[in-house]
Specification:
By secondary structure, the chain is mainly alpha-helical.
């Protein structure tokens, strides 16, 4: 299936989106898969396996990276840095929880801006 960006480009060029989908995802293929009967497997104890195929498949060996996990995401190049402003005093660089400045009265501030 094409991604959303590809669908947007295909639609912009007035082309058919379904022409760019794999045949696996189309209705005809789904109907063709279920034309035949599907027989469920019997219980594992009833399987007839050859004796020379007793291979044990183990999960892949995964290593846990050393060190502490990253808490902040890495910003992409050119992404602007977010400047936090305080909701109490309106100054940048801190939030209202860590604010040490006196609170600003917003009603007086709005009156001064109007006049």
């Amino acid at each position: 299936m094409p991604c959303g960006h590809a669908v947007a480009v295909i639609a912009k060029r007035n082309l058919g989106v379904y022409d760019y989908c794999a045949k696996f995802y189309k209705t005809e293929t789904l109907k063709a898969m279920y034309e035949e009967n599907i027989h469920p497997l019997p219980h594992k104890d009833e399987w007839n396996l050859p004796q020379h195929l007793d291979i044990v498949v183990l999960p892949p060996k995964a290593t846990i990276p050393a060190g502490r996990l990253r808490k902040k995401r890495i910003r992409s190049r050119g992404e602007p840095k977010v400047i936090i402003t305080c909701g109490k005093c309106g100054q940048p660089g801190h939030n209202r929880k860590t604010c040490r400045n006196p609170p600003v009265d917003k009603t007086n501030k709005q009156k001064k801006q109007k006049s």
